[in-house]
Amino acid sequence: MPQKLVAEFFGTTTLAFAILASLSIPNPLISTPIVAGLVLMLFVYSISAISASHLNPAVTVGAWAIRKITTKEAALYVVVQCLGGFAAYVLAFNLFTDVTFGSGLVPESYTDFFAELIGMVVFSFGIASVIYKKTNETASGLVIGGSLTLGMLLALAAGSFGILNPAVGIAIGMVSLSNIAGALLGSIIGMHLYRHLVR
Fold it and tell me: Which is the CATH superfamily of the domain at 2-198?
Protein backbone atom coordinates (compact mmCIF):
# COMPACT_ATOMS: atom_id res chain seq x y z
CA MET A 1 0.00 0.00 0.00
CA PRO A 2 2.74 2.59 0.75
CA GLN A 3 4.14 2.09 -2.76
CA LYS A 4 0.73 2.83 -4.26
CA LEU A 5 0.37 6.04 -2.27
CA VAL A 6 3.89 7.22 -3.13
CA ALA A 7 3.22 6.50 -6.82
CA GLU A 8 -0.06 8.44 -6.71
CA PHE A 9 1.51 11.38 -4.88
CA PHE A 10 4.49 11.60 -7.23
CA GLY A 11 2.39 11.13 -10.34
CA THR A 12 -0.23 13.69 -9.32
CA THR A 13 2.42 16.22 -8.30
CA THR A 14 4.20 15.82 -11.63
CA LEU A 15 0.98 16.04 -13.65
CA ALA A 16 -0.21 19.15 -11.84
CA PHE A 17 3.24 20.77 -12.03
CA ALA A 18 3.45 20.08 -15.77
CA ILE A 19 0.03 21.66 -16.28
CA LEU A 20 1.13 24.72 -14.31
CA ALA A 21 4.31 24.96 -16.38
CA SER A 22 2.29 24.72 -19.59
CA LEU A 23 0.36 27.85 -18.63
CA SER A 24 3.49 29.89 -19.40
CA ILE A 25 3.51 28.60 -23.01
CA PRO A 26 1.85 30.79 -25.67
CA ASN A 27 -1.73 29.62 -26.38
CA PRO A 28 -2.03 27.53 -23.18
CA LEU A 29 -5.63 26.61 -24.04
CA ILE A 30 -4.19 24.42 -26.79
CA SER A 31 -0.87 23.36 -25.24
CA THR A 32 -2.16 22.49 -21.75
CA PRO A 33 -4.48 19.60 -22.81
CA ILE A 34 -1.67 18.16 -24.94
CA VAL A 35 0.87 18.41 -22.11
CA ALA A 36 -1.59 16.86 -19.66
CA GLY A 37 -2.33 13.98 -22.04
CA LEU A 38 1.36 13.26 -22.63
CA VAL A 39 2.25 13.31 -18.94
CA LEU A 40 -0.66 11.06 -18.04
CA MET A 41 0.34 8.69 -20.86
CA LEU A 42 3.84 8.48 -19.38
CA PHE A 43 2.52 7.56 -15.95
CA VAL A 44 0.00 5.05 -17.26
CA TYR A 45 2.89 3.15 -18.82
CA SER A 46 5.27 3.61 -15.88
CA ILE A 47 3.22 3.23 -12.67
CA SER A 48 -0.15 1.71 -13.57
CA ALA A 49 1.15 -1.69 -12.47
CA ILE A 50 1.74 -0.16 -9.02
CA SER A 51 -1.23 2.10 -8.36
CA ALA A 52 -3.36 1.95 -11.55
CA SER A 53 -2.20 5.53 -12.19
CA HIS A 54 -5.36 7.40 -11.19
CA LEU A 55 -3.60 10.73 -10.40
CA ASN A 56 -7.03 12.33 -10.05
CA PRO A 57 -9.59 12.22 -7.20
CA ALA A 58 -12.44 12.12 -9.73
CA VAL A 59 -10.96 9.06 -11.43
CA THR A 60 -10.58 7.36 -8.06
CA VAL A 61 -14.21 8.11 -7.16
CA GLY A 62 -15.33 6.76 -10.53
CA ALA A 63 -13.32 3.56 -10.05
CA TRP A 64 -14.78 3.25 -6.54
CA ALA A 65 -18.30 3.67 -7.96
CA ILE A 66 -17.81 0.63 -10.20
CA ARG A 67 -16.17 -1.30 -7.34
CA LYS A 68 -12.68 -1.42 -8.77
CA ILE A 69 -11.11 0.03 -5.62
CA THR A 70 -12.02 -0.34 -1.94
CA THR A 71 -13.43 2.54 0.11
CA LYS A 72 -10.33 2.70 2.33
CA GLU A 73 -7.95 2.68 -0.61
CA ALA A 74 -10.01 5.29 -2.46
CA ALA A 75 -10.00 7.62 0.55
CA LEU A 76 -6.23 7.34 0.91
CA TYR A 77 -5.74 7.90 -2.83
CA VAL A 78 -7.84 11.08 -2.74
CA VAL A 79 -5.86 12.45 0.22
CA VAL A 80 -2.44 11.90 -1.37
CA GLN A 81 -3.67 13.18 -4.75
CA CYS A 82 -4.86 16.44 -3.15
CA LEU A 83 -1.54 16.70 -1.30
CA GLY A 84 0.19 16.20 -4.66
CA GLY A 85 -1.80 19.08 -6.13
CA PHE A 86 -0.78 21.32 -3.22
CA ALA A 87 2.86 20.25 -3.56
CA ALA A 88 2.78 21.22 -7.24
CA TYR A 89 1.36 24.63 -6.29
CA VAL A 90 4.15 25.22 -3.76
CA LEU A 91 6.85 24.17 -6.24
CA ALA A 92 5.47 26.29 -9.08
CA PHE A 93 4.87 29.31 -6.86
CA ASN A 94 8.54 29.27 -5.88
CA LEU A 95 9.96 28.50 -9.34
CA PHE A 96 7.80 30.36 -11.85
CA THR A 97 7.36 34.09 -12.14
CA ASP A 98 5.29 34.21 -15.34
CA VAL A 99 2.45 31.87 -14.36
CA THR A 100 -0.83 33.44 -13.29
CA PHE A 101 -2.32 31.63 -10.31
CA GLY A 102 -6.00 31.65 -9.43
CA SER A 103 -7.27 33.05 -6.18
CA GLY A 104 -8.11 29.70 -4.60
CA LEU A 105 -11.89 29.57 -4.41
CA VAL A 106 -13.65 30.70 -7.59
CA PRO A 107 -17.34 31.58 -8.09
CA GLU A 108 -19.81 28.77 -8.68
CA SER A 109 -21.10 28.37 -12.22
CA TYR A 110 -23.57 26.07 -13.94
CA THR A 111 -21.48 26.45 -17.10
CA ASP A 112 -18.39 25.18 -15.30
CA PHE A 113 -20.34 22.29 -13.79
CA PHE A 114 -21.75 21.04 -17.09
CA ALA A 115 -18.54 21.65 -19.03
CA GLU A 116 -16.46 19.71 -16.51
CA LEU A 117 -19.10 16.97 -16.45
CA ILE A 118 -19.06 16.59 -20.25
CA GLY A 119 -15.28 16.51 -20.40
CA MET A 120 -15.02 14.03 -17.56
CA VAL A 121 -17.61 11.66 -19.05
CA VAL A 122 -15.42 11.37 -22.16
CA PHE A 123 -12.20 11.04 -20.15
CA SER A 124 -13.54 8.40 -17.75
CA PHE A 125 -15.19 6.47 -20.59
CA GLY A 126 -11.73 6.00 -22.10
CA ILE A 127 -10.29 4.98 -18.72
CA ALA A 128 -13.05 2.42 -18.24
CA SER A 129 -12.13 0.74 -21.51
CA VAL A 130 -8.72 0.05 -20.01
CA ILE A 131 -10.11 -0.96 -16.61
CA TYR A 132 -12.37 -3.53 -18.24
CA LYS A 133 -9.49 -4.72 -20.46
CA LYS A 134 -11.28 -3.96 -23.71
CA THR A 135 -8.29 -1.92 -24.86
CA ASN A 136 -5.04 -3.60 -25.82
CA GLU A 137 -2.60 -3.21 -22.94
CA THR A 138 0.07 -1.72 -25.19
CA ALA A 139 -2.37 1.03 -26.19
CA SER A 140 -3.61 1.82 -22.68
CA GLY A 141 -1.46 4.94 -22.25
CA LEU A 142 -2.49 6.28 -25.66
CA VAL A 143 -6.19 5.72 -24.94
CA ILE A 144 -6.11 7.28 -21.47
CA GLY A 145 -3.82 10.18 -22.42
CA GLY A 146 -5.86 10.84 -25.54
CA SER A 147 -9.11 10.67 -23.57
CA LEU A 148 -7.79 13.31 -21.15
CA THR A 149 -6.72 15.61 -23.98
CA LEU A 150 -10.08 15.26 -25.72
CA GLY A 151 -12.02 15.67 -22.47
CA MET A 152 -10.11 18.85 -21.59
CA LEU A 153 -10.65 20.30 -25.07
CA LEU A 154 -14.41 19.57 -24.88
CA ALA A 155 -14.65 21.13 -21.43
CA LEU A 156 -12.78 24.21 -22.67
CA ALA A 157 -15.09 24.47 -25.68
CA ALA A 158 -18.11 24.16 -23.38
CA GLY A 159 -16.97 27.10 -21.28
CA SER A 160 -14.90 25.88 -18.32
CA PHE A 161 -11.15 26.00 -17.75
CA GLY A 162 -10.95 22.30 -18.59
CA ILE A 163 -9.52 21.15 -15.27
CA LEU A 164 -11.16 17.69 -14.95
CA ASN A 165 -9.10 17.05 -11.83
CA PRO A 166 -9.74 18.51 -8.35
CA ALA A 167 -6.05 18.04 -7.45
CA VAL A 168 -5.03 20.15 -10.45
CA GLY A 169 -7.65 22.70 -9.36
CA ILE A 170 -5.76 22.99 -6.08
CA ALA A 171 -2.46 23.38 -7.92
CA ILE A 172 -3.64 26.19 -10.21
CA GLY A 173 -5.63 27.93 -7.48
CA MET A 174 -9.04 27.36 -9.04
CA VAL A 175 -11.25 25.40 -6.67
CA SER A 176 -15.03 25.43 -6.77
CA LEU A 177 -17.84 23.05 -5.94
CA SER A 178 -19.03 23.40 -9.55
CA ASN A 179 -15.75 22.09 -10.94
CA ILE A 180 -15.39 19.36 -8.32
CA ALA A 181 -18.99 18.15 -8.56
CA GLY A 182 -18.90 18.20 -12.36
CA ALA A 183 -15.70 16.13 -12.44
CA LEU A 184 -16.90 13.64 -9.83
CA LEU A 185 -20.33 13.12 -11.37
CA GLY A 186 -18.89 12.98 -14.88
CA SER A 187 -16.44 10.27 -13.82
CA ILE A 188 -19.18 8.18 -12.24
CA ILE A 189 -21.40 8.54 -15.33
CA GLY A 190 -18.60 7.73 -17.77
CA MET A 191 -17.45 4.67 -15.83
CA HIS A 192 -20.99 3.32 -15.41
CA LEU A 193 -21.85 4.02 -19.04
CA TYR A 194 -18.92 1.93 -20.24
CA ARG A 195 -19.65 -0.76 -17.65
CA HIS A 196 -23.20 -1.15 -18.92
CA LEU A 197 -22.07 -1.22 -22.54
CA VAL A 198 -19.62 -4.08 -21.98
CA ARG A 199 -22.12 -6.05 -19.93
Answer: Glycerol uptake facilitator protein. (1.20.1080.10)
